[in-house]
Structures are given as C-alpha cells and as structure tokens.
Description:
The protein is an alpha+beta fold and 88 residues long. The chain is 22% helix and 20% strand.
Amino acid sequence: MLLTVNGKTHDLDVEPEMPLLWVLRDELGITGPKYGCGKALCGACTVHLNGSAVRSCVLPVGAVQARRHHHRGTGQPRSAARRAVGLD
Ligand code: FES
C-alpha cells in the first residue's frame, strides 16, 4: 500500500486494519503524533489528512487510502496551517 506523508510516498506492507498512528510511528519512525487515550478523545495523535484533522489512533490506514481517492479532484483548498504530519 502506498502512503504519502509530508510529500514523501512510502510503499508499506501493513494490514489495512492497522491504526494510522502505529503505521506512522512504528513503520515510518514519525514520532510527532503521540499515543494518549487510544479512543479519539485527547487529540495527542492528531494529524492532517487532506487538510482535515483526524485522530490517527482510531483511523485504519486502509481508510486513509479510501479517503485519499475520495477527495482527489474535489477542488477543495489544502489547509495552509498544516501540522507536523500531513498526509495527501
Ligand atoms: S490517542 Fe487520544 S485521540 Fe488518539
């Protein structure tokens, strides 16, 4: 599965059910997003996905792929205030 993070595309061999947070931290070594509650409550794991803030602790990486394709070509502007991790 291909995942673009901060403008760099990675080819990953992970299960689609794996939470995005663990893909970022364990597979890519991106430690900015933190584990806090694991229940989408605290925001420690928040990243930007196509300009929208998402809780990566509860978002399966497979859903990132689906969203990426869903939003492509909508003409929505990207957020100017991207956080440390941005996924396209
Ligand atoms: S770890 Fe608390 S919202 Fe994700």
